[in-house]
Amino acid sequence: MSDSTARQPGPGAQPVSAAGWVALGVLLLVYTINFMDRQLFAVLQEQIRADLGLEDWQLGLLGGTMFAVFYATMGLPIAWLADRAHRIRLISAACAVWSVFTALSGAATSFLTMALARIGVATGEAGGVAPSYSVLSDYFPKTRRGFALGIFTIGAPIGLMAGTILGALIADALSWRWAFVILGLPGILIALALLFFVREPVRGRLDRPAPADAPRPRPFDAARAVMTTPTLMLLTAAAAATSFGGYGLYQWIPSFLQRSQGLPLRRSDPCWDRSSWSACSAPWAAAVSRTGSGAPMCPPMLMFRRSAWRWLRPSSWRRSWCETVSFHCCCS
Question: Are 159 and 179 contacting, i.e. CB atoms less than 8 angstroms apart?
Answer without folding.
Answer: no
